[in-house]
Amino acid sequence: MGLWLSKLYDVFSEFSGSTPARILMLGLDAAGKTTILYKIKLNESVHTIPTIGFNVETVSPVKGVSFTVWDVGGQEKIRRLWRHYYQNAEGLIYIVDSSDKERLSEAKDELDGILNSDEMRGVPVVVMANKQDLPRSMSPSEVADGLGLPKMTGRKWYIHGACAKTGEGIFESMKEMADLVKTNKKSSIFTKFFRVLMLGLDAAGKTTILYKIKLNETVATIPTIGFNVETVNPCKGVSFTVWDVGGQDRIRPLWRHYFQNTEGLLFIIDSNDRERMAEAREELMGILQNDEMRHVPLVVVANKQDLPNALSPSQVAEGLHLHKLTGHKWFIHGSCASTGEGIYESLKEMAHLVKDHKKSSKR
Questions:
Q1: Which residues bind GTP (predicted)?
Q2: Residue 29 among known ligand-binding residues
Q3: CATH code of domain 196-361
Q4: Which of 62, 116, 143, 243 has the highest CB neighbour count under 10 A?
């Protein structure tokens, strides 16, 4: 079988007895994906033609072990189909032609597009800087810089030089992929995922808050016509999928379509808009009286506290009649979306309320 393949078998034996790990292999056309796939599978250098659809191979080195690799074509017209393969991917192997400096920025754009997809959130990535045998190939560190890997947040990554023809570097890359997938699976076991709905009147600052949480940046926003959805991690072991739904008058009747399976409600208030407090209260009470929102914990974010005429959180609580609420745990905190002040505290309390509610529901 040879030393190279036996070493690879040792890597995959770590998955013995577990669910098969689904690995996606992507990269631009002519990067060497298919050659690498069949080097892993057959320990042979095979003559390949451009992949039009996909190749899928399951490496089963020992009984009960499988590592399924999907190699999807990288030609420009095919790349828009990549997203159809993202679901349930547990690892991404991204192949780069290290000798093709002119297309490195294109490879970066495509990688960014993959990793920004919700279905690929948190998935570990291993970059193979292929064709290291060619004289003018970039080093792995140069490829890493060109792809912006050092700036990557929210996922584990690794890069290694490789030569598909000889197999050099493939074992090390696959071993690291195995380690990253295992680590990611373990951490996922201890992470609780909750579905949180973010509502409020138009111009309350919902989307600004969402992207302050997500990016720690103040972004210019326009009125949300449909919805924005992002996964955020307010504290260790907790992930929120936050649905930010538009608050314009004509959109509010659609809010109820998002109530199902909601585990927490973030209601955003413009503390500076005293004239619309009664309107905000009516909308909030309408939400909480819906059967699908019964007992769902509530956190009110009294936004725009930086403005001179803003109501205090206690005044907002009175205006919303929060003290008269029964059947819902609630919390209110002042905030400023542009600076981020008060947002972390509000989300941390949301995490506590949701976890407590889920515990009490099981009793």
A1: 27-34, 74, 130-133
A2: yes
A3: 3.40.50.300
A4: 143
